[in-house]
Amino acid sequence: MSRFIESASIALSAIWANKLRSMLTVLGNIVAVTSIIAVVSLVQGLNASVSSAITSQVGMDQFSVVRSGPTFSDEEQQRAQSNPRVTLDDAAAIRRLSSHVGLVMAQAQSGAEAKTPQEKLDTLSVKGVTKEWAQLPDTNVEVGRAILASEFDNAKSVCVLGYDAADRLFGALDPIDKFVQLNGIPFRVVGIAAKQGSLFGQSQDEYAVIPLKVYQRMFNWRQSLTLVIRPTETAFVQTAKDEATVALRIQRRLRPAARDNFGIVSSDTFLAIYNTATQGIFAILIGVVALSLVVGGIVIMNIMLMVVTERTREIGLRKALGARRKDILWQILTESVTLSTFGGMIGTAMGFLVAFVISRLSPLPAIVEPWAVVMGISMTAIVGLFFGMYPAMRAAALDPIEALRRE
After folding, report:
1. What are phi and psi of 61, to 5 degrees?
2. DSSP letter (8 states) at residue 275
3. Alpha helices (H) in 220-266, listed in sequence order
4. How far apart are CA 384 and CA 29, in angstroms?
5. What was the pLDDT predicted at 131?
6. What is the pLDDT of residues 295-323, one digit of tens each?
């Protein structure tokens, strides 16, 4: 242990005596690790943001029935086009035949022109929903109230506006009980939804919610619906999916061997698609950036070879005075690993700084993961060890007599 400490002390002294050369030596590692840490932090932030957005939009404890699920080939796409529309009869069948389904809400969505005396929006997302909408846990009306069940049943022209939609259409005015025209039809504003924020710079609060019956009069009543389904308990999500599948197959009179002519999607479905689409891209991106570590390692190896040449007489003298091969080996390896790790530490700090600046100046989020710190520093230590091995072995193999003769 004492010999190792002695070798480390000698190596650190040599590094400190040549500060400028040492800094230039690790510059490649600093740039490489900065790039890797910045990319990893941005990728982790992007993954977390997308996962959060999908979960908040779809919900972990709910799923949806749609006309067709995700398709991955032309053949699947052609089959999906022949699927029948999802209707309110399908929703009624699921309610009737599924014991573990607690809520079934039907919804549809289109764009409409929105206008008030103060402002006009060329396109505002309009969601037509059934009365179960008010029972969803993520339905949070911050100002005013939700649409009443009687207003759904009687197809009243009332609406709940998203936070940003209300702000843009009414400005500083109180929107409650005032009217907004959607495609020329006046709707009384009864509530303002709580702010959801934005995703990649895109507002999630520019929408209007209206009763589905009114929506179907405004738009194409033959439009396929989306059924949002929640189980009676979170633990019964898969059971509720199975029961909904059986209920729809019975409702549509499908034979046992016939494929489902509808799709069931959940947050897991979208997360799986996202991960499939991005994992390879992110891996290649990080791999390409990591190649610069190899360049940094080669620079360290070249410098260490030069160091060995410069200190040939010193190494010969140490061996003549009793230093063993492994002492010389440890000295050179310690210097190489220390240089490389020092560059890794600086690069890790700079990588987080770059990721933070990018997240501040753009919609891209960044997350600092503890394992990224360990990865950045350990990778550079391994690079220093690997590329320092050859110069260290060459130094350890020097003959002390020949080394002392060399000028």
Report:
1. -110, 30
2. H
3. 237-251
4. 10
5. 92
6. 777 777 877 777 777 666 776 777 776 77
Tell me: the pLDDT tens digits for 160-171?
999 999 999 998
Task: Please state, in angstroms and rounded to a whole number, the distance separating the CA atoms of residues 230 and 19.
Answer: 64
Per-residue pLDDT tens digits for 111-155 = 999 999 889 999 999 999 999 998 887 788 889 999 999 999 999
Place of tokens 């190899």: 294
Q: Copy the structure tokens of residue 83.
A: 């699927």
Token pair, residue 259, equals 């494929």
DSSP-derived secondary structure letter, 192: E
Of residues 133 and 44, more confidently modeled: 133
In 25-40, which positions are buried (b, 16+ CB within 10 angstroms) versus exposed (e)? bbebbbbbbbbbbbbb
Per the structure block, which two tokens stand in for 232? 């009676």
pLDDT of 58 > 60? The answer is: no
Does the pLDDT of residue 177 top 60, yes or no? yes
Nearest one of 191, 228, 57, 204 to 125, comparing CA atoms: 204
Q: What is the DSSP letter of 131?
A: G
- Taking the domains of the chain in order of start, what are their residue ranges? 2-53+273-405, 105-231
β-partners of residue 158 are 188
Residue the block writes with tokens 């022209």:
157
Q: Residue 131's closest CA among 234, 228, 266?
A: 228
Q: Is 195 exposed, middle or buried (0-12, 13-18, 19+ CB in 10 A)?
A: middle
C-alpha 33/C-alpha 388 separation (Å) is 18
- The region, left, alpha or beta by phi > 0 then psi within -120 to 50, assigned to residue 62 is beta
